[in-house]
Amino acid sequence: MQQPHSRLNWAWLKLKVLAHKRQLIQANLIAVTATLLSLPIPMLMPFLVDEVLLNKPGWLLNTLQPILPQSMHRAGIYIAIVLVAVIVLRLLTMLTQVVQAREFTKIAKRISLDVRQRMLLQLPNMQISAFEKYGSAGLASRCITDVDTVERFVSDTLSRLIISVLTIVAIASVLLWLNWQLGLMIILLNPLVIYLSSRFAGHVKSLRRKENAATEAFQQALVDTIDATRELRLAQQEKHYYQQVFGLASQLSQHAIANQWKTDALNKLSFTTFLLGFECFRAMAIFMVLISDLSVGQIFAIFSYLWYLMGPIQELLNIQYARFGAQASMERLNALLDLDTESVNTDSLDANTVEVKARVKGAAQLSETSGSGGQLNAVNALTPSTGLQIQFDNVSFGFEETPHLFNQLNLHIAANESVALLAMSGGGKSTLVNLLLGFYQPQSGQISINGQPMAEYGVNQLRRQVGYVPQHPKLIAGSLRENLTFGAQIDDATLWQALEQAELATTVSRWSNGLDTDLGRSSARLSGGQLQRLAIARMWLTKPDLVILDEATSALDTATEAKVLANLQLFLQQRSCIIIAHRLNNLTMADRILVLDNGKIVQSGNQATLKQETGLFKQLFASN
Ligand SMILES: Nc1ncnc2c1ncn2[C@@H]1O[C@H](COP(=O)(O)OP(=O)(O)OP(=O)(O)O)[C@@H](O)[C@H]1O
C-alpha cells in the first residue's frame, strides 16, 4: 500500500520550517541585528581617509566633534575612537551571530529529527522483502547520511538565506546611497550570478547520489565482513574479504573526491563569475571617480562593501549546492517511503509499541481485571488456547531465482492440531511460515485463518496469536529480561517459570545479575542452544494460539531437547502447532506429518503410515 502523501519534498520541508515560525522570526531578528551591527564597519575606516587624512570633515567628524572636548579634536583620537567602535561592533556582531547560529541549529536539528522519525515510522511498515533488498547498512546509511545531507541544507538555508539576501539588499542600498549607478549595477549583477550558478550546481545532484550509494555499498560490505569475522578468520580469507572492502572504500573515496572537487570547482566557477562581474564593477567604480564627485574615501568604502558582499554571495552559492545534494538525498529517502508497505500493518509506531506490550495476553488480561500494572502470573501462562485453524487454498509463490517454489499449494491445519512439516532442505518450509505470518504475500491463492481470509482476519491480529521460534533467534540490545518480555510488564516468578520450561533457569540462576544480565548487542554471550531456549521461553510467555517451531531445538543436545519437549508437551497439545524439524524425535509430538515436495503437499499422515509409504518421507528417514 503506497503512501504518496508521505514523500519528502520542498513543500514538506517548507511546512516543517513554517511550523517553527516563532523561533524562526526570533532567530532572523537576531540575524538582522548581527547584520545591522556589521553593516557600518566597512564605512567607518575609509571615511576617516576623507575626513581626517584629506581634511574634508563630513558626518563622522560632525558627529564626533560636538561630543568630544576641544582637547580631543585630534586625528589620532578620531582614529582610535573609530578603531574601538569597529572592534566593539565586530565583537557584538560575533556575539549575535553565535546566538543566531544556536537558534537556527535548534530548528534544523528538530527538522532533521522529524525526517529521521518519518523514516523510523516507515521501517515498521516496510515489507520484509525491502529489508532483504536494502540490507541493514543500506537502511542505516539512508537514515543517517541522507538525513544529514537534508539537515545540512535546511540548516544552511535557514541560517544563511534570509540574512544573505538582506545583507546584499542592505549593501546594495548603501551603494545606491553612495552612488546610484554602482548600486544599480550590483543589484543587476547578483541575480545573474545566482542564475548561472544554479545551472552549474545542477551537476552536483548526481555526484552526491553516487557518493551516497557508494557509502551504502561500503557500509554493507564492512558490516557483512565484520559479522563473518570468525568464519573468515578460520578460513583464513579475512584479508581477501577486507581487500574487497578496501576496493569499495576506494570507490567511495573516488566518488567522494569527484563529488568534492567537482562541487568545489563548480562553486568556484560560480564565484569566479561573480568576481568577473566584480572586476567590471571595480573598473566602473574607478571610472566613476573620474567622471563623478566620488571621493577616494568613498571608493575605499565601496571596495570594502564589495568585499563584504563576497560572504553572502558565497553563502547563497553554497545553498544552491546544498539544495541539489539535499534533493538527491530526498530521492533516496523517498525510494524507501514509496515502497509498498505491509498493507496489513498500518499501525503507527506508538500503536505498535502499545501492541507489543499488549502482546503478552496475560499482562493485558490481568491489568484489566486486577489493575496490578499488567503482571502476568503463572496460572494465566498455562491457560489452554482455543487454537487456530489454518487453510492454504491454491497458494502459489516464488522468488526471482525460484519462481515456482509453491505451486497451487493446499494445506489445512485444524484448531489445536500439531502438524510437522517436512521437506528437503530448501524445500520452502521457512518460506511457507513467512507466507503464513504475512511477511510475504501469495502471488495467487488465499490463506485463511479460522475460516476468514487473511486480509479480513488481519495479520496483526494473527501475529498477536502466534509464538514463532526460529532456528536462529535474534536478540535485541539489552538485558535477558528485556529479551524475554520485549518491554511487557511480567513478574519475575513468571519469567523464571518460562526459563524453567525452556531448561534455562539453572544457567541464568548462576549469573550474578540473573534476569537483569545484559546480553549485549549480539548473541555472543549465549550459546546457540541457550539462544534457542531463550526464544522458547519468550514464546511460552506470549501464550500463543499457534506455535511455530522452526528447527527450534536444532542446537540442543538430545537430552536437553527431550526435557524441553517434555516440559512443553501439555502446552503444545492445547494449541495449534507447526513443527519444522529434521529429527525424528521431534515428529513424535505431531498429530500429523505433512511432506512438502516441489511446492505441493505430497504426503500426509502419521509416522507409522508414512514409514510404510514409498515417498519423500521414507527417503528423508531412510536410516531411522
Ligand atoms: N528472501 C529470499 N529471496 C530469494 N530466495 C529465497 C529467499 N528466501 C528463500 N529463498 C529461496 O527459497 C527456497 C526455499 O527456502 P526456505 O528457506 O524456505 O527453505 P527451507 O525448506 O526452510 O530450507 P532449510 O530446511 O534448508 O532451512 C530456497 O531455494 C531459497 O534459496
Automatic annotation (TrEMBL):
Source organism's superkingdom?
A: Bacteria
Gene Ontology MF terms in the entry:
ATP binding
- Which keywords does this chain's UniProt record carry? ATP-binding, Membrane, Nucleotide-binding, Transmembrane, Transmembrane helix
Compartments in which it is found: Cell membrane
Q: Boundaries of each ABC transmembrane type-1 domain copy? A: 29-318
The answer to whether keyword Membrane applies is yes
Membrane topology type: Multi-pass membrane protein
Parts of the chain that traverse the membrane: 24-49, 75-92, 161-178, 184-202, 285-308
Could you tell me which residue ranges the ABC transporter domain spans? 390-623
Q: Which CDD domains match?
A: ABC_6TM_exporters
Listed name of the protein: ABC transporter ATP-binding protein/permease
Q: Which organism is it from?
A: Shewanella subflava
* Phylogenetic lineage: Bacteria, Pseudomonadati, Pseudomonadota, Gammaproteobacteria, Alteromonadales
